[in-house]
Amino acid sequence: MDPKPNPTLRTLWYVHYQSSPTDGSAVHVAEFIAAFAALCAQSGVRFRVVAPPQRSRVPTTNETVWRKVRRALGRYYLRDLLLLWRQWQRSRQEGAQLDADRPDLVITRYDAETLSIHWACHKRGIPVVTEFNGIDRGELRGTYLDVKPLPWCDRLFSNCHAFALSAGALTVTGAIAAPLHRCNPDQKPITVNHNGVDTTRFHPEIDATPLRQQWQWPTETVVIGYSGSFIVWHRPQRLIEAWQRLRAAGHPVALLLIGRHDEAVARRLAELPAHERRWVVWTGHLPHDAIPQHLAAMDIAVLPHTQPYCSPLKLFEYMAMGKAVVAPDTAGVREVLTAEREGLLFDPDDDSTFFAALERLVRDAPLRHRLGDAARARVEREFTWTHNAERVWTTVQAAWQWHHQKARR
After folding, report:
1. The CATH number, out of the four listed (3.90.800.10, 3.30.1480.10, 3.40.5.10, 3.40.50.2000), of the domain defined by the range 11-56+72-196+385-407
2. Which one is the CATH code of 208-383: 3.30.300.30, 3.40.50.1110, 3.40.190.10, 3.40.50.2000?
3. Which residues form the Glycosyltransferase subfamily 4-like N-terminal domain (predicted)?
4. pLDDT tens, 82-128?
5. Does the pLDDT of residue 2 top 80, yes or no?
6. pTM
């Protein structure tokens, strides 16, 4: 693809608010920036990233006193009042930066409550292309966002309202795009832009023999693995229970868990008999550069559960490694993985179908290899970070054109 930008498009900003170094969004942001900066350089467009300082420490799941206080205050509207104050302050700061640099267009990663750059750009007539990675914050209540909102704040921070302040949108799944299409009377461009993966770093040729020898797992051991966070809606307990059932049935399976410490998972693993614990390795948090070698040690890569609107980064990394994937049959997963072609899908509400998919792959090595090869081929065709950046580029051009057509009306 040879991008041909509008001649008047000279400077692009990418504004994000990602500060944690350990989660999937940090990987997404870093990889997108590198790929998109290369496209801009090829096209003679100046590209600037505006972001908060990156935290250096690894977050913990410990319940600190401050976290308890914040959660308690959140139940009495105070969280929203503080949020609005901070967004207003940030909008003034970002406005000063915009005045100094005057970008032609801003791309921003919306995080359910980050409207400040939209306000600053709207005041100055600068078009914004918004990347949506989740659903409205009101729909998240009861998960990690368990607060009492001001009655009108959910509407203010809704995806549709953020989109109303934008010239175009990018979403990681069709499920996130669908509501935007319903609130798009002006026909702004909307692109479903799935996550990506670096296929030069994640590839099937990585040798995991040293790791498996270190863990003293025989060559005939079938390693079932998971990489990611152990938050409750990822259902890590489902994976542990299925692995135990496979062990009880006499299958030579080991369990590899990659991700930072979680108390509930730790308690669950501590309950295992001593002779079973030797077949479990929990690495804890690993730097992203160490992930490929550990994924290489897996024979079956698992996504125990995900929300229907999600496009988990780990799924693309599993596929790039050429692993046999077991994942829930959700709309977001089906957009990137075809059942029986690139992986096996199971009913997310039925543990028996999850177990059956795992057992089928444990028994059938040729099927594992066939699915893994097909998965690798698909990410090479569609889901590298270059593909991701090219779809953003195309959407930016369409939004830039929409913005100027609107101005001429």
Report:
1. 3.40.50.2000
2. 3.40.50.2000
3. 23-201
4. 899 999 999 999 999 999 999 999 999 998 889 999 999 999 999 99
5. no
6. 0.91
